[in-house]
Specification:
There is one protein chain. With 292 residues, the protein is of the alpha/beta class. 23% of the residues lie in helices and 24% in strands.
C-alpha cells in the first residue's frame, strides 16, 4: 500500500488526508497540536455553521473525521525531510519512509527577536543546516532555538563544524542537547562581524565566536522543511504549480505555506487538491490500485 505522510493537522492537512485515505492509501498525519486554527477564539465566516465556532472545536472535529476514515494521527514534531532512496519524514521519534509527502504546517508566525538577524542573512545567518552546513566545515557555529527543531539542526552540524552551541536566548531548553553540542542560555544582545558574521554578543557584553548562526526557532515550518529537500521557496512561501506540486517529485504543499489568502476555505481547497493530485501521482507510477 502506498504511504502518504501529511505534515500538519490543520484544515489543509486534514482535508488532504480525507482524500488520500478514501483512495485507500496508508495515510499518516503528523501534528504538534499547536496550529493557528486552535488558537482562534471564534470563527463565524465559514460555510456550514449558523453560529460561531471555536477554532479548537473545529480542529478537533476535523481530526475526528480523519480518524474515522483510518488516518493515523501521530503527535510528533517533524524536524526534517530528506531523500534517501525515497522521501523520508524525520520526527522527534524516528524516520517514516513515504511515497508522497504533503506539507501543510502553515506559515511561520514565530520569529526570534534578535537584533541584526536580517542584516546577516546570507552572511553567516542561515535557516537550514542541511542546505548550508557544508560551508562551515571545521568552523564554530551556533544554533538559535530551544526545542526539538534546534536539537535536530545541531545534530546535523556536529559532524561538520569544529564546535556547535545551542543558544536559547534566555529561555530554558525544552529538550536535551545532542551529545557533543554545548548549550548557552544567555540573552543575546546582537551579532557582530565586518561584512560576515564572526560572533554573537550577549547582554553581559561577552561574545561567542561563531562563523555561522542557524535559526531553528519554534518548530520547523513548511518552508523550512521544503528547503531541506531542495524545494523552491520564496520567503516563507513554497512555490507550487497548479496541482499543488513542488519541484520535488512526490512533494506537495497546501494551505498558508503557499501564500495568498490566509483563510480556512482556501486551506481546505488546497488540501483537497493536494490529496487528489497525490493519488493521481501514485496511480501514474502504478503504486495505487484504482477504486472499484
Amino acid at each position: 500500500m502506498a504511504k502518504v505522510r501529511i505534515i500538519g493537522g490543520g484544515p489543509a492537512g486534514v482535508s488532504a488526508a480525507l482524500y488520500t485515505a478514501r483512495a485507500q492509501m496508508e495515510t499518516t498525519l503528523f501534528t504538534t497540536g499547536r496550529s493557528a486554527l486552535k488558537k482562534a477564539e471564534k470563527i463565524e465566516n465559514y460555510y456550514g455553521f449558523s453560529e460561531p465556532v471555536t477554532g479548537q472545536s473545529l480542529e478537533a472535529s476535523g481530526l475526528d473525521g480523519a480518524k474515522r476514515l483510518g488516518v493515523e494521527i501521530r503527535e510528533e514534531e517533524v524536524v526534517g525531510l530528506y531523500w534517501e532512496d525515497g522521501l523520508i519524514v524525520r520526527t522527534s521519534e524516528g524516520d517514516y519512509p513515504a511515497d508522497c509527502v504533503i506539507l501543510a504546517t502553515g506559515t511561520s508566525r514565530l520569529a526570534p527577536s534578535v537584533p541584526d538577524l536580517k542584516e546577516y542573512e546570507g552572511k553567516g545567518v542561515s535557516y537550514c543546516a542541511v542546505c548550508d552546513g557544508f560551508f562551515y566545515r571545521k568552523k564554530p557555529v551556533a544554533v538559535l532555538g530551544n526545542g526539538e527543531y534546534a536539537a535536530a539542526e545541531a545534530k546535523e552540524l556536529l559532524p561538520l563544524a569544529s564546535s556547535v552551541t545551542i543558544l536559547t536566548d534566555g529561555n530554558e531548553p525544552e529538550v536535551p542537547a545532542p551529545e557533543g553540542a554545548a548549550v548557552d542560555t544567555r540573552k543575546i544582545a546582537g551579532l557582530r562581524g565586518e561584512g560576515k558574521l564572526d560572533g554573537i554578543v550577549f547582554e553581559e557584553g561577552e561574545a561567542l565566536d561563531a562563523a555561522g548562526l542557524f535559526v531553528a526557532w519554534g518548530i520547523a515550518g513548511s518552508a523550512a522543511l521544503a528547503k531541506k529537500i531542495g524545494a523552491l521557496t520564496e520567503g516563507n512561501r513554497i512555490r507550487i504549480d497548479e496541482n499543488m506540486a513542488t519541484n520535488v517529485p512526490g512533494l506537495y504543499a497546501a494551505g498558508d505555506c503557499t501564500g495568498g489568502l490566509l483563510q480556512i476555505a482556501k486551506a481546505v481547497y488546497e488540501g483537497a487538491k493536494a490529496g487528489t493530485e497525490a493519488v493521481r501521482f501514485l496511480r501514474a507510477r502504478g503504486e495505487l490500485k484504482r477504486e472499484s
